[in-house]
UniProtKB/TrEMBL annotation:
Residues 245-455 form the Histidine kinase domain. GO terms for cellular component: plasma membrane. Its EC number is 2.7.13.3. This is histidine kinase. It is found in: Cell membrane. It comes from the Bacteria. Keywords: Kinase, Membrane, Phosphoprotein, Transferase, Transmembrane, Transmembrane helix, Two-component regulatory system. It is an enzyme of class 2 (transferase). It comes from Leucobacter luti. It catalyses: ATP + protein L-histidine = ADP + protein N-phospho-L-histidine. One of its GO terms (molecular function) is phosphorelay sensor kinase activity. Pfam families: HAMP, HATPase_c, HisKA.
Length: 457
């Protein structure tokens, strides 16, 4: 937007400078040439008066001395022509005229006065030639030719145009500075809105914009934005409070209900064992759902505590923590990969995401199967692979596997809430990580937790 504003303001300003500068440059050139023509025309009139006396008397001594001084002073050339069209040889100098000048001399001897020179570019001609007839009592008795170099007016015009170019460049620079400051002033309120939106995107829900920022048109938008941000903050706070309260409030009656189920089971005959076990499993499933809700509500609070973490040790520690659970399911946990892999990350987030994935892998692995855990490197990223050999997921369902409460049609009978991978995805996103899920050729799933900030050696 800033570039568009600069272009919108700068192009008309540059066009105006070009038009005004070009007009003034042409006007100054004409003024210099007219002054130059007027001065030489005055000098020519002076020599015409003196040539009249000299031609009438036939004495050229006085005229020759004046012409010599004039030529030495101004570098011009003055030639006196008698009525026969032959130049006078003044001071022993032989004069030759070109064909164009001779043609103009013929016109002057016929009684026609020279035309006023027209304005032209300074480099259009090397010399300016003026021819004026000499009259006495109405008869033409000769002509005077004045030839002057155009170097002086050319230098004066070039100097004027140089100053115009310098002033134009300074004006352009000043205009660019003004346009940049104007664009910055115009966009300052928009930039504040953008900064506030970015802050909210990064979790700072308290970010607001001063109501007096910008023009009245933008203040209305800022008011709407502040109200929207406040409403979003209230909604998120209510959601988290609801999840926390629901998790805590439902846990006690659920535990009490499970205790009563155990007490009732002691007085029931063996024919009720299947129903009792189903009730226990449903209770445990509710407990897992409550734990999941609690994790979701807490994951949105606080910033990541980034520090150097030995990912290899972290994976080994979590595998050891899950050994008992895996043993009850008759599943082996195998840890592989290179040791001593260190990266800068939040250990709690990685552990929580890894627990959710290990839980899924153990849950869906067949009895006697194995879950393989390993640490890999790829460029500047570090990955933790969790590979199971369970039923897996069809390729067309892989994209939906991280959606909340999603369950595959082939695993509906397996206990679970459908939130494990969704939680892992959200947790990793909070530390600039990612979750990669593939279906390997041997069956099962391979879930990779990518941590993208590798510590310096």
């Amino acid at each position: 937007m800033r570039q568009r504003l600069v272009i919108v303001f700068l192009i008309p300003m540059l066009g105006l400078l070009v038009v005004l500068g070009g007009g003034y440059a042409w006007s100054s050139a004409q003024s210099v040439q007219q002054a130059f023509f007027a001065d030489n025309a005055g000098d020519l009139s002076y020599f015409v008066t003196n040539a009249r006396q000299a031609l009438a008397s036939g004495n050229s001594l006085v005229l020759a001395s004046e012409i010599e001084r004039y030529e030495e002073l101004y570098g011009a050339s003055v030639v006196v022509i008698d009525r026969t069209g032959i130049p006078w040889e003044l001071n022993g100098r032989e004069t030759r005229l070109d064909e164009e000048t001779l043609a103009r001399v013929s016109l002057a001897l016929s009684g026609r006065r020279g035309e006023t020179p027209q304005a032209m570019l300074p480099w259009a001609a090397e010399r300016m030639t003026l021819v004026e007839p000499v009259f006495t009592d109405g008869d033409v008795i000769g002509a005077v030719v004045l030839s002057q170099s155009m170097a002086a007016p050319r230098a004066a015009i070039t100097q004027h145009w140089g100053w115009i170019a310098v002033l134009g460049a300074l004006g352009t620079a000043a205009g660019v500075l003004v346009v940049l400051r104007l664009a910055r002033w115009v966009l300052r309120p928009v930039r504040r809105v953008d900064e506030a939106m970015a802050a909210i995107e990064h979790g700072d829900m308290d970010a607001r914009i001063d109501k007096a920022t910008g023009p009245p048109e933008l203040q209305r938008m800022i008011l709407v934005f502040n109200n929207m941000a406040a409403e979003i903050e209230r909604v998120l706070a209510r959601q988290r409070e609801f999840a926390l309260n629901a998790s805590h409030e439902l846990r006690n009656p659920l535990n009490a209900l499970l205790v009563r189920v155990e007490m009732l089971a002691t007085g029931l005959p063996e024919s009720w064992d299947d129903d009792v076990e189903a009730t226990r499993e449903e209770g445990r499933r509710l407990v897992r759902i409550l734990d999941t809700l609690l994790s979701l509500s807490r994951s949105g609070h606080g910033d990541a505590e980034v520090r150097a973490v030995d990912v290899s040790e972290l994976v080994a520690a979590r595998a050891a923590a899950w050994d008992d659970v895996a043993a009850r399911a008759e599943v082996r946990l195998l840890v592989r990969g290179e040791p001593g892999v260190v990266c800068a990350t939040d250990a709690f987030v990685v552990e929580s995401a890894l627990d959710a994935i290990i839980d899924n892998a153990v849950k869906f692995s067949p009895r006697g199967g194995a879950v393989e855990l390993g640490v890999i490197r790829r460029g500047d990223a570090i990955g933790i692979e969790v590979r199971d050999h369970g039923p897996g997921v069809p390729d067309d369902e892989l994209e939906a596997i991280t959606d909340r409460f999603w369950r595959s049609a082939g695993t509906q009978n397996v206990p679970g809430s459908g939130l494990g991978l969704a939680i892992a995805t959200d947790l990793l996103a909070s530390i600039d990580g990612a979750l990669d899920i593939t279906a390997p050729s041997g069956g099962g799933l391979c879930v990779t937790l990518w941590v993208r900030r590798e510590a310096a050696a």
